[in-house]
Design a protein that fits this description.
This protein has helices at residues 4-17, 23-29, 32-52, 55-76, 80-84. The chain is mainly alpha-helical and 87 residues long. Bound molecules: phosphoribosyl ATP (PRT). It is found in: Cytoplasm.
């Protein structure tokens, strides 16, 4: 189990050390356009799960959306602080 902040720290470390086999490293290399498409795709899956699937599936899709948003944040160099100041 990890929090949003802990995941962001983990992905930041992946971006820094670029370990082989990391999907995050691959997603970062794909660029902002591809990262944005993934956000949209996962958002659609969240919507569908909310209407038609179980609470567990919905939670899983939401976790994937949060991951994709964080990859996009890293792709653009946006930090948690940049976002949190608007909450
Ligand atoms: N939380 C996630 C996470 N959520 C979603 N995903 C990726 O998103 C995919 C699911 O999204 P899709 O619906 O697009 O699935 P897909 O179309 O079958 O997958 P692709 O072909 O697009 O890769 C998963 O198979 C993962 O590749 C994640 N990948 C990694 N993490 C976490 O990020 C951290 C770093 O991961 P690595 O960079 O892979 O080491 C670890 O803690 C992981 O648990």
């Amino acid at each position: 189990m990890k929090t949003f902040d802990e995941l962001y720290a983990e992905l930041t470390e992946r971006a820094r050390t670029r370990p082989e086999g990391s999907g995050t490293v691959e997603a970062l290399a794909a660029g902002v356009h591809a990262q944005g498409k993934k956000v949209l795709e996962e958002a659609g899956e969240v919507w569908i799960a909310a209407e038609h699937e179980s609470d567990e599936r919905l939670a899983e899709e939401i976790s994937q959306l949060l991951y994709r948003v964080q990859v996009l944040m890293l792709g653009r160099g946006v930090t948690l602080e940049d976002v949190y100041r608007y909450l």
